[in-house]
Amino acid sequence: MTLKVKIQFALLVGGMAVLAGLLPAFLALREVEAGFANTVLGAPTPDAEAVAALADQITFALWAMAPGAASLTLALIALALWMHRLIVSPLRGLAGQFPDAAQAAFASPDTLDRTDEIGQLSQAIATTVSALDAAVQAGGTAATEDTDARYLDLLTLAADFVWETDMHGRLTHLAGALPEELEASEEDYYGHPLQALLSVPTDGGTDRPLELDSRRPLTNLLCCYETAGGEKRYCRLSGHAVFDDTGTFSGYCGIANDVTVDLAEREAARILAYDDALTGLANRTLVLERIDQALEARPLSGGDVAVLFVELDRFKDINDRFGHELGDHVLREVGTRLHQLAGPQDTVGRIGGDAFAMVQSNAAQPEAAEHACLSILTSLALPFTVENQSLELTASLGCAVASTDDTGALDLLRNADIAMYRAKDEGGNTYRFHETQMAAEMRGRVAMERDLRHAIADNQLEVNYQPLMQTATGSLTGFEARVRWPRQGHGMVYPEEFLSLAEKSGLIAPLSASVLSTACRTAMSWPDLVLAVNLSPIYFLDDTLLKTLVQTLRDSNLSAHLLELEITEAALLSAENTALFQFDALRELGVRMVMDKFGSGTSSLQHLQRFRFDKLKLHRGFISGIETDPSSAEIVRSVLQLGAALGLETAADGVANKDQARLLKKLGCQTLQGPFFGKALSANRAFALLRSKGIMPGAPKAERHL
Questions:
Q1: Contacts with 107 (C-beta within 8 Å, 6 or more apart), sequence order
Q2: What's the pTM value of the predicted model, to 2 decimals?
Q3: Peptide bond before 366: cis, by omega within 30 degrees of 0?
Q4: Chain-centre distance for alpha carbon 242
Q5: DSSP, residue by residue, 389-421
Q6: pLDDT tens across 286-324, in order?
C-alpha cells in the first residue's frame, strides 16, 4: 500500500468517528429547534410548563454535544500520532544516518522493508551510500589528485605562479609563469632551493638571498629574478609554513605575482616627482625632504646638518656664447662633479637653473661644510671640455648649519641661499657661512628691489649730467648722463648702490630704457652737444636694446652721431659673437661707441682689434696720483699713444685737480671729466650752466679754460 492510500484511509476512519460522536448532538439540537418554535413562536403567551420543557431540551442538547467534541479531539490526536509514526519518525531516522554515511559507516535502517515511498527512499539512500563507499575505496587517490589539480588551477588564476617546498626549502612544486620565463620545465627545479631562483633587492643596489628559515608567514615580500633572456623582473611573494597532522613542520607553500610593470610605472612617477630631468640629481622637492629627514634624525645620530648652496658665476654668458645645448652639458658635468664629492649620507640636488645644493647629515660642522666648499671650488676650477670647447667656471657658495633656531628645511635652504648671495656680492669664486645679520640684509635687498621696481614704473628716477670738457679748446663739449634715485625715506641713492641689484633682478632693461629716453629728450634741447650714456653689460646684450634705441632716437629727434654709448670690457667677454653683432648694429645706427674704463680688464687689446670703437676712455684708477707718480704717467702716455695710433679719440674720467688736467692735456688726452670740472647736475642746472657759458641764449659766454 502506498503512503498516499494510507493517509486517505486514516482520514476516512477519523471522519466517520467524528460523525458518530456528533450525531446525538445533532438530533438533540433538532428537538430544541422544534420546541422553541412551538413554545416561543407558536403560542401567544407561553405557559410555564412549556418553557420548562424547552429548558430541559436545551440542557440535554448541550450534554449530547460533549461526547461529540471529545470524539473529535481524540480522533485528531490519534491521526497526528499515526502520521508521526508513519512519516516523521522514519525520515528523522534516515537523516540521522548521513553523518555515518560520510564516514562510510551507513547502517541499513528498518524502513528498507517497507513497500511505500519511505521504503523506496531508504533503498535509494542505501544504494547511493554503497556506491560512494565503493568509489572512495576504489579511486580515492585519483579523486584527491583531481581536486588538488583544480585547486592549483584556481591558485594559478589568482597568482602568476604557485610554489611549494619541503622542510629544507627545496622546491616540490612550481607552476605558472615562472618556469616559462626561465625556459625550463617545472621538474627542472624540483629539489633545488627556492633561494636559487629568487633574491631580495636592497636600497644599496645589491640583492640579498631570500630567507625561509624563520617559519614565519611571508606577505608581499618584494623579490627579483632573472629570466632566460637576461631581463630582471620583480614579484611579490606570499606564503606560510606547512605542518602535518602531528604538528611537525613539513615545508612552505605560497604564491607570487609579477609586479615588474607596476614598479616601473612607480619609478617613472617617482623620477618625475623627485628627480631633476636634466642631471638626474634630486630636485628641489627631494632636497627639502632630505633636509627634513636629516633634521628629524639629528637627535639620534648626534651629528649636525648643513646645507651648501652652489650657484655658478656668470653662467648666462656660457648660454649666450655657446648656446643652451652646450650649457646643459656643462650643468650635467657640474652635477657629476658635485656628486663625486658628496659623502655616502649626503644628498646632491639641482635647485633650478645653475643652482645646486648639497645636504650634509650626521657630520661634524662647520668643518665638514668648509672642507666640502673648498673641494667644490677646486673641482669646478678645472676646465670643462664640452664638444671640443674648453670652458672655465667659478661658483659662489653659501653654507648654513642647522641650529636650534631653525624651524625647518626651507629655512635652512633659504639661509644657505642668502649666504651664497653674500659670496656673489664679494666677487664670486668663494664661499660664505650664513650669519644672523644676513637675513636682515636680504630683507633690505628685497625691499630695495621692490622700491626700485616701483620707482622705474612711476618715473621717479632722476638723470643728472656731468660736464665733458674738450682739452684742445677748453670748452664744454657735452655731458655724461648719471642716474640718481631719490628713494623715499632713504635720501638720494647712487648707481653704485642699486645697479648691481637691477642687473640681478631683471630690472636693468627697463631702468636703462628709462634713462636713455629721459637723457635723449633733454639733450635734444642742447645745441649740438654730445650725450654720453653708460650701458650695463647685461643690457648691452639685451634683445630689446636696438628696438628701444631706434624708438628713443625717433621720439626725441636727437641726431644719432651726438649719442655716445659707453660699454665696459665685461660686455665683450661673454657671447662674443652676439656682442659683435650688437656692436655693429649700434654703429650702423650712427651712434658712437666708447670703451669705458679701459685697462681694467685682461683682453683690451684683442677687443680693440675686433671691435671698431670710436673712443677710448681711461679708467679713473690710472688718473689718481698721475701728477706725482711717474709710472702712472707713463702708463697713461702709452695708452693715449695707442689710441692715437688706432685712430681713436681718448678721454679720461676722475680728473680731480688742475695739475691732473694740465698733464693729461699735455699727454694728448682729448676729453676730460671729473670733480674738477663739476659734479653731475640736474637738467635745469645743466641748462643754467649752458646759458652762463653763452652756449645757449640767456647769458654771456664765459668758458672755463684749462
A1: 97, 100
A2: 0.53
A3: yes
A4: 45
A5: EEE---EEEEEEE--TT--SHHHHHHHHHHHHH
A6: 999 999 988 888 766 667 899 999 999 988 878 877 888
**Sole residue written with cell 551510500:** 129
CB 354 within 8 A of CB 341: no
DSSP 611: S
What is the layout of strands, in order, in the sheet containing 347-352? 347-352, 355-363, 304-312, 395-401, 430-433
Decide if 390 contacts 383 (C-beta within 8 A). yes
Please give the Cα distance from 423 to 619 (Å, whole number). 26
Tens digit of each residue's pLDDT (9 = 90 or more) over 434-475? 988 887 887 888 899 999 999 999 999 999 999 999 998 889
Q: How far apart are CA 131 and CA 446, in angstroms?
A: 96
- In what side-by-side order are the strands of the sheet with 249-258? 171-176, 161-165, 249-258, 232-243, 218-226, 199-201, 207-209
CA-only gyration radius of the chain, Å: 55
Exposure class string for 201-238: b at 16+ Cβ within 10 A, else e:
eeeeeebeebebeeeeebeebebbbeeeeeeebbbbbe
Q: Identify which of 419, 210, 399, 378 has the alpha carbon closest to the alpha carbon of residue 304.
A: 399
Secondary structure of residue 359 in the 3-state scheme: strand
* Residues 515/552, Cβ–Cβ less than 8 Å: no
Placement of cell 502506498 in the chain: 2
Exposure string (b/e) for 415-447, b if CB count within 10 Å is 16 or more?
Answer: bbbbbbbbbbeeebbbbbbbeeebeeebeebee
